[in-house]
Specification:
Blueprint: E1 2-7, H1 20-27, E2 32-37, E3 50-51, E4 61-62, H2 64-77, E5 82-92, H3 95-101, E6 106-110, H4 119-125, E7 128-131, H5 141-152, E8 185-186, E9 189-190, H6 193-196, H7 200-218, H8 230-241
Parallel strand pairs: 1-2, 1-6, 5-6, 5-7
Antiparallel strand pairs: 3-4, 8-9
The structure holds S-adenosylmethionine.
Length: about 240
């Protein structure tokens, strides 16, 4: 999987991609992350990348020409790339989107700044607009980091078996069950007996019920689309009575 990130602040990416699983994936050639400084594509003496908005109003807008030149240069080498614009106006980025994007070979991610990018960038080049959530960040860099991270861990072989994504939250439409590790007791809090029992069937049942309970409490909206068995439905009905 090849990621090309278009940003005015490439230095922001030094830390997050230099550690742990993403670093290992890059070192092993499973993913490739290239950063492109949009300012390098500004054509005037002052390397201007923003300008006042037509129609007035507060803030600046990212100019179309430097972004167009940057995108076209990157696309010349990435013919199959899907172009993503980070913006609070986009569709919410979720695990299903991460799974879908992990099937792609090449992604170009545009990081906005100021009031965002000239709308013609979207019209000319953007395949998909993605939002991290209903809040406004100072720039698209953190959104790009989140997208790269969530997509990369779904690329085959990026996670070792120890970090498997199979039981993650959202994998089957539910939040994940709680985890415990040693010691069995800490400040009076015991690890649930069932997890120490060695009875794998009972453990699976307990985990499923915990996942259902947590989802019902915190994200009941997810239950509408989750894959639920008849036993799950029955358990949820029991919980609703409590
Ligand atoms: N004026 C814009 C609006 O109200 O929609 C917000 C611009 S924001 C200050 C600057 C840049 O940060 C955006 O162009 C986008 O790239 C990024 N950004 C901010 N919030 C985001 C979010 N929730 N999801 C994804 N990107 C975001």
């Amino acid at each position: 999987m090849k990621f090309d990130i278009l940003t005015l602040f490439p230095g922001m990416f030094d830390g997050p991609f230099a550690e742990s699983i993403i670093r290992r994936a890059v070192d092993n050639g499973l993913i490739d992350i290239r950063l492109h400084n949009i300012r390098d594509y500004a054509f005037d003496r002052h390397k201007t990348t923003d300008d006042y908005p037509y129609g007035g109003g507060a803030g600046m807008v990212m100019k179309v020409e430097p972004l167009a030149a940057c995108i076209e240069t990157v696309r010349a080498e990435r013919a199959a790339a899907r172009v993503i614009l980070t913006t609070p106006r986009g569709k919410p980025f979720d695990q299903a989107t991460a799974r879908r994007l992990a099937e792609e070979k090449e992604l170009i991610i545009i990081c906005g700044r100021y009031e965002g990018v000239d709308e013609r960038v979207r019209e000319l080049y953007v395949d998909e607009e993605l939002s991290l959530g209903d809040y406004v960040l100072t720039g698209g860099e953190i959104a790009a980091m989140v997208i790269v991270d969530a997509v990369s861990r779904l690329v085959p072989d990026v996670l070792g078996s120890a970090d498997s994504a199979a039981a993650d939250s959202f994998c089957d439409g539910l939040l994940e069950y709680p985890h415990y590790t040693r010691p069995p007791e800490f400040r009076g809090l015991q690890v649930p007996e069932v997890l120490l029992s060695g009875n794998h069937q009972e453990i699976a049942r307990w985990r499923r019920r915990q996942a259902l309970q947590k989802t019902l409490m915190v994200r009941p909206d997810l239950l509408a689309t989750a894959r639920l068995s008849a036993e799950d439905e029955k358990y949820l009905q029991e919980l609703a009575k409590v």
